[in-house]
Each structure stands twice: as C-alpha cells, then as structure tokens.
Amino acid sequence: MFLSEAAASGPTFFYLVPLVVFIPVIGLLINIIFGKWMGEKAIGWIASLATLLTFLVAILLGVSLINHPEQVIVPLLEWISIGDLQVAWAFQVDTLSVTMMLVVAGVGSLIHIYSIGYMHEDVRFNDDPGRFRRFFVYMNLFIAAMMILVSADSYLMLFVGWEGVGLCSYLLIGFWFEKGEGGTGNAQAAKKAFVTNRIGDFGLMVAMFIMFWAFGTLNFDQVFVQSTQAAETVILAITLLMLVGVAGKSAQIPLYVWLPDAMAGPTPVSALIHAATMVTAGVYLITRSYPLYESVQQAQDIVALVGGITAFFAATIAVGQFDIKKVLAYSTISQLGFMVAAVGIGAYAAGMFHLVTHAFFKALLFLGAGSVILGVEHGHHHLEHEGKLKKGEVFDPQDMRNMGGLRMRMKTTFWVYIIGALALVGVFPFAGFWSKDEILLEEQMLFPPAYWILIFAAFLTAFYMGRQVLMVFFGKPRNEATEHAKENRLLITGPLIVLAFFSAVGGILNLPRLHTFTDWLEHTVKAIHPVDFSLTVAILASIIGLIGLFLSWVVYSWRYKQLQDLPPAKRPDDPLRQWLGPIFTGMENKWWIDELYWAVIVNPYIRLSRFLAEVIDWQFWHDWFHDSFIARGYKGLAGFLSGPIDLGFIDGIANGLAAVTVRFAGSLRLIQTGYVRNYALTVFLGVVVIIGYLILR
C-alpha cells in the first residue's frame, strides 16, 4: 500500500520515514562543517541528538503501524531507469523494518551517549584529541547506512545500505589505524573486515543478478510474487548465494574471521557493530526474504546447519580467549548462529526476538567491558604519574589475566555486567531466557540436529561467561593497575543502567501465550506460527546453563585459588590449560583457522601475486618483452632504417642527384667564358640554326 492510501485510514506518521536516514546525515554534516569551532560535548551531543531524533521517528512509525499494521511504501525519488531495470528510492514501512529501526536507533542512541564519555578518555589515552569529531561523524554515518538497509523496498536499495555499513565498519575498526601490532595491526584488522565482507557481498550480488535475470525486477514484493512460478533450482541458487552474503555480514562459518579482529576499534564501535547494526543485517536479510527460503526446504536446512555449527564452534573458541572483548566477540558469533539457525528453519519470530534481546545485553556487555578497560587504564595511568611503572613494562588493559577483584572497585559496572551475563546465559527471568528458549523449542520441533548442537553451545555460553565474570570481578587483583582502578562517571554508567533494565525485563516483549512480538511481526512475515512454552525445554536449558556456571566457579574460583599458592614459574595462566592441554591450546589459538586461511588461501595468493608481479610482469613483460623484444627489435629496425635505407638508399639518391648536378654544372661552366664576342658568336649561330631550320621545314 502506498502512502496516499494509508493516510486515508487514520492519523499516521509514515511520511516521516525519510527522516530516519536524513537526520543522522544532518548530524554528521553539522559536525563536519561546524565541528572545528565546537567543543567535544557539543560534537558528541549533536551526534547523539541526531540518533535520538531518529529513534523518535522510529517510535512514531511504530505507533502508526499499531493503528495501521499493513505495509506502506513511501516513494522518495526515481533512482535508476535503464531498460527493464526501474529502481526508485522508496521506503518500506512494516513491522519488520520498524523493529530494526527501533533496535538500531534505540541501542545506537545509548551507545552514542556512552561514547561522549568514553572517547573523551580514549582520544587522550591515544594522544590525539583531534579525532574526537571524526569518530562521531563516522558513527552517524553508520546509523544512516543501516537505516537505508532496513528501510529499503528493493534488494538493490538494501545493497546500498549493505555496502554503506561495510564502509563504516572499515573506517571505525581502523579508527586508530597507526596503532596495534607492529604499528599496522588495527589497519590490518580493518582491511581484513573489508576484504572478508567483499567475498560475502559478491555472493549477494550474484544472487541479485540471477534474481533480475529470472524475474526482471529487484523489488521485494514483485520478486516474491514471481518466485512462486520459478524453478526450484533458481530459488535454491538465489538463497544459497544470499547465505554467502549473510555469512560475511553476520559472521557465520566460513567468513566469521573478521569479527574478532574488529575489536581493534574503540569499544563503542564494537558495541554498535555487534549489538545493533552490521552483524544483524544478515539475519534481517533472511527474514525479509522468507518467501524465497520457505519455498526451498534444502536451503532452510543448510542455513540452519550453518547457524548451529557456527554457534557451537565460536563458543568453543570463546572459552580459550583472554581478551575481555574477544570473549564477547566470539560470543556474538555464537549468538548470531542461534539467530541464523532459527530463521533458517522458519522460526522468524524467535530469531528476530533473540536479535532484539541480544541487542540489549550484548551492547550492555561490550559497553561494560569498555567501562572495565577505562577503569583499569585509569589505574595504569595513576601508576605512571606516581612513577611506579617498571621500565619497559607492557600492559594490556583488555587482558583478563591482569584483572580480578573489580567488583569492589567498580560496583555499578559489576552489577550491570552481571545482569548482562545472566541474560546472555539465559537465566530466568532475564531477557535471554525467553528468546533463547524459544529458539531451542522451535529447533527441537522442526530440526532436531540443530537443537542438540545449540544445547551444547548454550552450555559453553554459560561456562565462558562465568569464566569471564570470575576472572574480571572476583578474587584478588592480579595487577597493580587493577588495584587502582576506579568507577567511571555517570555519562558512561548511565547508558549501562538503561541497557541493564532492558536486559532484565526485555522478555516481556514476547512472553509465552501472549506472543506480543510474534503477533506484531506476523503482519509482515506471514509464515510465522506462534509456539507454546515448553517447560521441559526451559528446565533443560536452565539446568545446562546452571551446570556451566557451576563448573566455571569450580575452575576459576576454587581451582584458581589453589593455583595461586604455586610459584609463579609453575603457575599456569589458566586452570583449563592444565586439564585440557592441547584442546585448550586449540581454543586459545582459535583452532588455527586464521593460520589455515593463510596457508590455503592468503599465502598462495601472495605467492601468485608475487609471481605475476616479479616473473610475469617484471621479468617477462618488462625485462624480456619490453626491454628485449620491443626495445631491441625497435633498435634493430631503427638501425636498419637509418643505415641501409636512410643512409644507403635515401641518401644515395640525394647524393647521386647532387653528383649529376655537379657534373652537368661543370659541363655548362665551360661555355661561360666571360667574353662578349663568344656570347655574340653563340647568338649568331643560334639565329643561323633557327633560320636554317625554318628554311628546311
């Protein structure tokens, strides 16, 4: 339904939908043009206000859908008109797109506000306050790109936002591009994210090419209508190629490797990417394309398996990480696996519900980790000012082995982090309990293999989150900087408290038997079928979660204390290393997947590139073909043309003509005596000859 038809049915605000893109753009333009004359607070609050106003527009759109739940298309302008390809920039307002707008703008607003306090410290820790403005310009651009993605009414317009968030992730992951390992580590992480996503994007592009070839359009509704008449092989190809794009953006096997390295960006960037923007795009794409996936069972099974395997595999790696943010990064990959497995089998409401609750508690955990890092950095800088640092000491404020005992020094951060961790584990009554259990129930009914994989992933989730909480907040400080850590100001802890509230009560969005969120989403995703609450699944999942938490306490509280009595030289950095040996080493080293990619793909590519550059391009093309074949051939031809042809033949003709002329001139010179009598005689003889000729004739 178009805007004009919707407006007649009651008071709505659908006409405001373009503002979800333009307000963040206005915010970033103000900071670009006038930011150099403004202070940090003004820059930060302009960017935050732009995101808050975007959130307000999303709320008004949500209210409009309550009054008028049918899909509404709001055209803005004609974009492309080439032959059969007609693409307009139009906004699709429905319960699915508005859900994403609310998540992106709502959680994004809290992250923006948090960033004002965090980046004030971060730019000073990195000795470059001038980058404060650039950060918020990129953040507003990220929100705008994500809004283009979720509000599009066609795959091509969605792809514009899809590429936009890819660009923003590159800019923000590499924000401190000159820092990191070897002075290029952060830049390499940004490049890794960009290149990996280009692989996924290529899959989505080919899917769109096939779509346009088969249907002659890229508009969602028109594609879905015509797909019912298409061959199953065509739909299978489109959906599996889409899955390649999903694997890139939503970090699924085998393209998940960029997301942990995205921790190179400032912590608010990690929160924005992991909780509200880029990684949710793949889950949204599958849900938006549900008519295509519903028509091919094989595609659904493959998506569900990819999601389930990713959830378990990433959870095993999280167990062996020591960087506080990388634990959460692999946790995000794992939770995205839950979502992908859900939407893969057709549990769209469960997958999207988990996307919403995950946005709450994962943003909380990342921002909480940022608060911890800032607190520990404050302690480190305190020692630096006191002159108590050892010469040449390298300190990593993100290494959990340097932490411990922070629950007494950072009480607000501790309590909100506990809420986020319990929500992620799925402990009753926190938000994650309701959304994760709904996924498990759907998997049990529709695809049991994925159900059991996700059960093991849920156990590991509980274990690695218990491990993290115990290593960071409990026990005694394991570093002098941690002993001097202090709580952050309200500008940082305030958004954490808000996110903790929603992480605690967010489950009310889709309580069993009420199915509020399911009913809301059903207006757009017609394939949704509400499922009843299963006490058996809930109890099993809760028991598994509690066992995981208990085992983490056994290992990282009871056993950890015993290890502290050992001499430092014999004390392992992690109790699991003693018990699991090579298995823990594999987890710590991410199962050497990066090394495998380097060995199988990157290094051969580099060797091929060097061979093409050095042997083919330089030695063959430059040294032989250019210098030998072309240059020597040219010199030989030039020598031939200049010697035999030019000097021998051309010059010979010219010189011969000159010689004949000289000889003829010499002969003529004999008659040039200079005596008048000779000339008179010559004239006379000439007259006689002429007269004689005339007489004889």
Can you give a write-up of this model?
- A hairpin with a 2-residue loop joins strand 1 and strand 2.
- The model has no long low-confidence stretch (mean pLDDT 87).
- Helix content is 73%, strand content 3%.
- The chain is built from 27 helices and two strands.
- It has a two-stranded antiparallel ribbon with strand order 1-2.
- By secondary structure, the chain is mainly α.
- The longest helix has 77 residues.
How would you summarize what this structure contains?
73% of the residues lie in helices and 3% in strands. It has 697 residues and is mainly α.
Descriptive keywords:
mainly alpha; two-stranded antiparallel sheet
List the helices and strands and how they pair.
Blueprint: H1 3-7, H2 19-34, H3 40-67, E1 72-82, E2 85-93, H4 95-125, H5 132-151, H6 155-173, H7 185-215, H8 220-227, H9 232-249, H10 258-261, H11 267-276, H12 281-288, H13 290-294, H14 297-319, H15 324-344, H16 348-386, H17 411-425, H18 431-446, H19 448-473, H20 480-483, H21 490-505, H22 516-522, H23 535-563, H24 575-580, H25 582-588, H26 593-669, H27 676-696
Antiparallel strand pairs: 1-2
Could you estimate the helical fraction of the residues in percent? over 70%
Question: What is the general shape?
Answer: elongated
Strand neighbour order, sheet with most strands: 1-2
> Number of helix segments?
27
Through-space gap between termini: 114 Å
Q: How many β-strand stretches?
A: 2
* SSE run: HHHEEHHHHHHHHHHHHHHHHHHHHHHHH
Question: By helix and strand content, what is the structural category?
Answer: mainly alpha
Radius of gyration: 37 Å
Beta-strand level of the residues, as a percent range?
under 5%
Unreliable spans are none
Main sheet specs: 2 strands, antiparallel
Mean pLDDT: 87
